[in-house]
Amino acid sequence: AYNAPLPMPTLAVHTPDDGLIAWESCVGNGPNVASVEVSGCHTTICRSAEMREAVVRFLAPANTLEQAAE
User: Fold this and answer.
1) What's the whole-number average pLDDT of the chain?
2) Which end is more exposed in the chain, N or C (fewer Cβ atoms within 10 Å of the end residue's Cβ)?
C-alpha cells in the first residue's frame, strides 16, 4: 500500500543538504506528483523562501504539475 500512487496531486520536496534524511527517499514519482528540489537543511527548510514559492506554485489553481515542478 505504501508503494501505490497517490490518487491526488502531490508535491514532493527534497533538499540534498538535509543532513537527516536521504534526499533520494523524498523524490516523488508518479502521474500525480510534482517533485521539487530546494536548498536548505532539515530544520530550516520550512522557513525557506524556495520552499514557500514551491508550495505557492503548486497550490495555484491554474498550474499544472509540470509548472509546479519548475
Assistant:
1) 81
2) N
